[in-house]
Design goal:
81% helix, 2 domains, mainly alpha, 301 residues, flat
Length: 301
C-alpha cells in the first residue's frame, strides 16, 4: 500500500512539474536558448564550459519566467481564445497565484544565477528582457496598440545579445546586428499568425493589426517587413562579420521569405489566404532557426 501511495505521489509531482514547464512556453524558450547560444559561441572570447552552460540555463529560466508571468496576467484572455484556452491556468491545472509565485521565483533565481556565473552586463540585459516582456509588452502594449508586437519585439530580440555579453561582458555592434535580425523578423512572424487567428484576437479584444486596420493593411505590412529584413540579413556579410556560407544560406532564405510574403499580399481568395498565412508563419520559424544556424556554421568553418 505504501509503495502504491509513493508511486502516486511521484506521478502527481511529475505531472505538476510538467504543468509548470508548460507555463514557461517551452517552444518559445527553445528559440531563445538557441539564439543565445549562437551569440555566446560566435563571441571572440572563449568561456569556460561550466560557466557557459549554467549561464545558458539561467537565460532559459529567465525566458520561461517571463512566459509564466505573461500567462498569469493574460489568463482571462487565454480562456476565450482557441489558441490558448488549453493552457495550464484556463484549464485549472494550476492557479493564478501559483503561477505568479513561480514566475517571480524563477525570475529572481535566473537573474541571481546569471550574475554569479557570468557578469553584470549580461545580468542587466536579462533583467531588462524579463521586465520589458512583462510590463512593457504584456501589461501595457498588448491591449493598447496594434503596434504591440513591433515595440514589444525588443524583449524577444535580446537573447543573442545576452549570449554575447556572457562571453565578452559588453554589447557590440555585431551583437546588435543579431538583435536587429530578430527585431525586424518579429512583426511579419506574428502578424501572419494573427491573420488566421483574427477571430481569437477579436474575442479577446486584443488590438492586433488585422483587427484594427484590416487584412489588406496587415498583408502589406508583412511584405514591407520582409523587405526591410533583407538588407539587415545581408549586412553582416558586407560588414565582414560573416562569410560566404552565411551569405548563401541566409540570402536564399530571405529571398524566399520575401516571395511567400508577396504571395500572401497578392492573394485574394480567403481560403488560400489563410493557407499562405500559415505557410508564412511556419516558414518564419524555420527561417530564423536556419539563419542563426548559418551564423554558427560560418563561424566554425
Amino acid at each position: 500500500m505504501t509503495n502504491i501511495k509513493s508511486k502516486a505521489l511521484k506521478l502527481d509531482l511529475f505531472a505538476y512539474l510538467k504543468v509548470l514547464f508548460d507555463l514557461m512556453k517551452p517552444r518559445v524558450m527553445s528559440l531563445v536558448i538557441f539564439t543565445c547560444v549562437v551569440g555566446l559561441l560566435i563571441a571572440p572570447v572563449e568561456v569556460d564550459f561550466w560557466n557557459a552552460f549554467v549561464s545558458i540555463l539561467a537565460v532559459a529560466l529567465g525566458s520561461g519566467a517571463a512566459g509564466v508571468l505573461n500567462m498569469w496576467y493574460e489568463a482571462d484572455l487565454d480562456s476565450v481564445m482557441t489558441r490558448t484556452c488549453l493552457r495550464p491556468i484556463p484549464t485549472g491545472k494550476v492557479t493564478k497565484k501559483e503561477a505568479l509565485i513561480f514566475g517571480i521565483l524563477a525570475s529572481v533565481i535566473s537573474v541571481t544565477i546569471l550574475y554569479l556565473f557570468s557578469n553584470l552586463v549580461a545580468t542587466l540585459i536579462l533583467v531588462t528582457t524579463i521586465l520589458y516582456y512583462v510590463f512593457i509588452y504584456t501589461v501595457w502594449l498588448k491591449q493598447k496598440t496594434s503596434q504591440n508586437i513591433v515595440i514589444g519585439g525588443v524583449s524577444g530580440a535580446l537573447p543573442p545579445v545576452i549570449g554575447w555579453a556572457v562571453a565578452t561582458g559588453n554589447i557590440s555592434f555585431e551583437s546588435m546586428i543579431l538583435f536587429l535580425i530578430i527585431f525586424i523578423w518579429t512583426p511579419s512572424h506574428f502578424w501572419a499568425l494573427s491573420l488566421y487567428k483574427m477571430e481569437d484576437y477579436k474575442n479577446a479584444n486584443i488590438p492586433m493589426l488585422p483587427v484594427i486596420s484590416g487584412v489588406k493593411v496587415t498583408k502589406l505590412n508583412i511584405f514591407v517587413y520582409a523587405l526591410l529584413l533583407f538588407p539587415i540579413i545581408l549586412a553582416p556579410f558586407f560588414l565582414n562579420y560573416f562569410g560566404t556560407i552565411y551569405l548563401l544560406i541566409s540570402g536564399t532564405l530571405a529571398t524566399y521569405y520575401i516571395y511567400i510574403c508577396y504571395k500572401l499580399f497578392r492573394v485574394q481568395d480567403s481560403n488560400l489566404e489563410e493557407k499562405i498565412a500559415k505557410q508564412v508563419f511556419g516558414f518564419s520559424i524555420l527561417f530564423l532557426f536556419l539563419v542563426f544556424t548559418s551564423i554558427l556554421i560560418d563561424s566554425i568553418v
